[in-house]
Amino acid sequence: MISRHDIEAMIPHKGAMCLWDEVIDWDAQRIRLRSDGHRDAVHPLRSDVRLRAVHLCEYGAQAMAVHGGLRGAAAGGEPKVGFLVALRDVQLHVARIDDLADALECEAELLAESAASQQYSFRIVHAGDVVAEGRAAVMLQG
Question: In this structure, are residues 97 and 55 in contact, taking their beta carbons and an 8 Å threshold?
């Protein structure tokens, strides 16, 4: 299992903005992660004491970044810096997530890649129910 400390070393998000607590498993095409931070009263994405489901897109994007970091390390190099440029077919099945009692889990899958871009699908689940899903595109630098 890959810990939060290891995740923070791979992505630009630090402290409370690192949204994932652990990597459950991964391979070259997929990653699965878990987090309990959505219930934190001082979560940095909260507004009006709520954490809205739209922020699950950031959870999905960070899952992609962690996957890129792991793939880069496995290849013996540094991961490329990526910028989220598009979200597609996003479906939010809840209005908010701060009131969800159990951990969130995400599976992100690499759908396509080139030297300059990647496209992923992501699916976030709470207690066996899908709470968000969609696709995201990233432009890579360098």
Answer: yes
Which domains can be identified in the chain, with CATH numbers? 2-140 (3.10.129.10)
pLDDT tens per residue, range 10-27: 888 999 999 999 999 999
Nearest to 107 by CA among 43, 49, 20: 20
- pTM for the full model? 0.95
36 band by pLDDT with thresholds 50, 70 and 90: very high
- For residue 100, is it left (φ>0), alpha (ψ between -120 and 50) or beta? beta
The tokens for 107 are 């599976």
User: Order of strands across the sheet with 30-35?
Assistant: 2-3, 22-26, 30-35, 104-113, 117-126, 129-140, 82-92
User: What residue type is 84 in one-letter code?
Assistant: L
Smallest Cα–Cα separation from 70: which of 33, 43, 117, 125? 33
